[in-house]
Design brief:
Elements (H helix, E strand, L loop, with lengths): L3 H15 L6 E4 L5 E3 L2 H7 L7 E5 L2 E5 L3 E6 L5 E6 L8 E6 L4 E6 L6 E6 L23 H8 L6 H6 L9 H10 L13 H20 L40 E5 L2 E5 L6
Helix pairs in contact: 1-6, 3-6, 5-6
The protein binds a DNA duplex through loops.
DNA sequence: ATACTCCCCTGAGAGC
DNA sequence: TGCTCTCAGGGGAGTA
């Protein structure tokens, strides 16, 4: 369940090994991972390009190549592993890139929900899927007025609105719960009832939560035991999310679990109104 | 136009 | 032990 802090952590970790590496070959073993172009075009087009940088946009990893940018969305369980060329392809390894020195860089995804896009660098920001992303948490344009304007006409719950990537890009289910807890907002509050002041609280707490999580290398809730897996430390800092039978750190009351928009949601009914 | 539901997938955990 | 059933979940597609 990588959200912005996990995606940033992965990007940083991959950069140390991938910058300057050339893609010599590519094989796709599960076609649906490749969202654009076709599997065949993807395999052909990516070969020969050098990885110059790895950044993020929303929850996407952006691999900057020679003529294209490779976008990767890890969705729930996408991961990357480094193996040796010729090593057997394991059950959940779906895309393989052969790099310099016979390094085999592999995309691993148990649920097969992840997606890759190979788009020309010239206009990739204007094209799907990045074109529909909202502001980054650190963007100066993310003000209380912006958020209020985006949500005040919506009748859905505030929890759902914060998951909407076209408003703020990068918040997922875990950090959403943490942000709402710090903002003293009930996840079922109608977004049209959220005040300008509360929008300010949400933005401030979004920045606090995400920045701290990034410092700590993200949250590892479910991880494979692997030396290559990215293990963050923020799970130790979670205040409400995942606290089944947990105690509210503010009032000592019981953390409640419910469903909001189909997502498992943790909150304190006493502190969040 | 907005807000739902379903679907993609598999493994973990519950129940029998 | 081993089977079946349910659930998790980001986000796109389809539907009301």
């Amino acid at each position: 369940m990588p959200e912005k802090p996990e995606v940033i952590t992965v990007a940083r970790s991959l950069k140390t090994r991938l910058i300057g590496q050339k893609i010599h070959a590519c094989s796709v073993y599960w076609d649906n991972i490749i969202a654009y172009p076709s599997k065949e075009e993807f395999e052909k087009q990516v070969v020969g390009q050098v990885i110059h940088d790895i950044t993020t946009r929303g929850k996407f990893l952006v691999f900057s190549l020679d003529t294209d940018n490779l976008l990767v969305h890890l969705r729930m369980e996408g991961k990357f592993f480094f193996r040796k060329k010729g090593d057997p392809i394991l059950k959940h390894e779906h895309v393989e890139f052969i790099l310099d020195n016979d390094v085999s860089f592999r995309y691993h995804d148990v649920r097969k929900f992840g997606k890759m896009y190979l788009l020309n660098k010239s206009d990739y920001m204007e094209k799907y899927p990045l074109c529909q992303l909202g502001l980054e948490y650190f963007d100066d344009a993310l003000t209380k007025e912006y958020l209020y304007e985006k949500i005040h006409a919506k009748k859905t719950h505030i929890k759902t609105v914060l998951l909407d990537q076209s408003i703020i890009a990068g918040i997922g289910n875990i950090y959403d719960d943490e942000i709402l807890f710090l903002s003293h907002l009930h996840p079922l509050r109608k977004s049209c009832d959220v005040t300008l002041k509360e929008c300010e609280d949400i933005i401030r707490n979004t920045r606090i939560v995400l920045e701290k999580a990034i410092q700590l290398g993200g949250t590892t809730i479910k991880s494979f035991t692997s030396e290559e897996g990215v293990h963050g430390l923020f799970q130790n800092e979670l205040l409400v999310h995942g606290k089944k039978d947990g105690v509210c750190p503010t009032c000592g009351g019981k953390i409640t679990i419910t469903k909001v928009g189909g997502r498992g949601t943790y909150f304190c009914p006493k502190c969040q109104k």
